[in-house]
């Protein structure tokens, strides 16, 4: 399957011209989102090449590694806003921390990371906003907003941080 992607890249590169861009995101925003294949962030948010940083993982949860990326994004590359995007029907809602124990049973080693599964996407967005806002490493935490993307309508719903 990777061969297909590499072939697609050849066609992409054939039509590509150097945009001459700086690495600093034009819109000064970093988006943290779930890796879900149904979420096309650039299309859904009207983003163009060079506009923003996109940081994605399973669930779009704010882990230490996301804080690492946001810290570099803000301190080295000039972003000042953070947008968090979870979505409906997320696979993380079907997992529990038992996943780690099952892994340990199977491979004889417990992962160092937490699964970070959740039951309620709204509540996890609130927790994620809180993790960003309280990080000592981030100089810009005034503009942190969280959303749930509906994979059936394509619409974002904003989450009130204090609901
Ligand atoms: Zn997801």
Structure in words:
The protein is 34% helix and 18% strand. The protein has 5 helices and 5 strands, in the order αβαβαβααββ. The chain has helices at 2-14, 41-45, 64-77, 98-107, 121-133, and strands at residues 29-34, 52-57, 81-87, 143-149, 156-159. Strands 2-1-3-4-5 form a 5-stranded mixed beta sheet, with helices on one face. The radius of gyration is 18 Å and the shape is globular. Zinc ion (ZN) is lined by residues 34, 36, 59, 87, 90-92.
Overall, the morphology is: globular
* Global Rg: 18 Å
Tell me the series of helices and strands, N- to C-terminal.
Answer: HEHEHEHHEE
Distance between the termini: 44 Å
Q: State the share of residues found in helices, binned by percent.
A: 25-40%
CATH architecture: 3-Layer(aba) Sandwich
- Low-confidence parts, pLDDT < 50 over ≥5 residues? none
What's a quick, concise take on this entry?
This protein has 163 residues and is an alpha/beta fold. It has helices at residues 2-14, 41-45, 64-77, 98-107, 121-133; strands spanning 29-34, 52-57, 81-87, 143-149, 156-159.
Key attributes of the depicted protein:
alpha/beta; Beta-carbonic Anhydrase, Chain A; 5 strands; binds zinc ion; zinc ion binding; Carbonic_anhydrase_sf; carbonic anhydrase; Carbonic_anhydrase
Q: Helices, strands, pairings?
A:
Layout: H1 2-14, E1 29-34, H2 41-45, E2 52-57, H3 64-77, E3 81-87, H4 98-107, H5 121-133, E4 143-149, E5 156-159
Bound molecules: zinc ion.
């Amino acid at each position: 399957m990777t061969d297909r992607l590499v072939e697609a890249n050849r066609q992409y590169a054939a039509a590509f011209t150097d945009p001459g861009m700086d690495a600093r995101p034009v819109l000064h925003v970093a988006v943290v989102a779930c890796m879900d294949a149904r979420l096309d962030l650039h299309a859904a948010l009207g983003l163009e090449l060079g506009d923003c940083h996109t940081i994605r993982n399973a669930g779009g949860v704010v882990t230490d590694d996301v804080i690492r990326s946001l810290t570099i994004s803000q301190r080295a590359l000039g972003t000042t806003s953070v947008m968090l995007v979870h979505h409906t029907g997320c696979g993380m809602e079907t997992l529990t921390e038992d996943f780690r124990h099952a892994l340990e049973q199977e491979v004889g080693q417990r992962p160092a990371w937490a699964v970070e599964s959740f039951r309620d996407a709204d509540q996890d967005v609130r927790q994620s906003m809180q993790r960003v806002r309280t990080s000592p490493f981030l100089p810009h935490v005034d503009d942190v907003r969280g959303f749930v993307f509906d994979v059936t309508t394509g619409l974002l719903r904003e989450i009130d941080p204090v609901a």
